[in-house]
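Changelog note: in this version the structure field was regenerated for every chain. One regenerated record is shown below for reference.
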Amino acid sequence: MTTNQSIECGVGCLPVKATRQALMKFVGIAVGILLAIAVLYLATYYLLRDPGGDVLGMSRRGNEALFGPAMKFDDLLARARRDSAVSIVESSLAQARSENKRVMLLFSTKSCLPCRQLEKFLSANSSTITKQYVVSTVDLDTTPDNDAIHEKYRNTADGPNYYPWIVILAADGQPLFSSDGPPGSVNQLGEGQSKVIALPFTNDASLELFLQMLQETGPNITAEDIEALRRAAHSYRQELSKMNPAD
């Protein structure tokens, strides 16, 4: 014999149907939130990804929107192999005039390890550097017609011939400062690691000359920019010393 039994709910007890509806509503909201997060993630991924697929690198479009275009030295070196030195300088000066900047012209060679180290430092600090300078590279091994530009801006007859070598140009092409110092400077101070040249990672005197170069030529560079670059240079030098403990 079957007995019908009824279940009575006390205060606060919800019917089974109402409980199921509340649970389904909660699940629906949770699924909606997860879908929204997924859509936001995908949108952010494709927004920040550069054409090469780099999501976290300096060249991503998200960084460019925040800090301005980052330097891509692979592109600069490819241009240095393709275009003549004269056209590189002329186009850089034209860009500097239109953007109220100066030109930072780097002379390097294919086998120059310090050249690659300088490129890495400038890339890591491109948010500061590219606000002040149009950066271009002339490779003395591969850039067509590099002799004319090299001889125009650098007198190596009375001083050492080393690389990388930097010259800062005003928008009219006038040299303002170089790795040797202000115009007319000839670097004859020491050899090897004691040599004083305007590079950020060789020694303290060279770093200060590098920062002096930026202070005297950067159109809008600030004291905060200089201090940030000084800290970055010290950190980078420590990184290099760990990689080359014998140096």
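Spot check on this record: The first helix runs from residue 16 to 48. The chain has one domain: 71-243.
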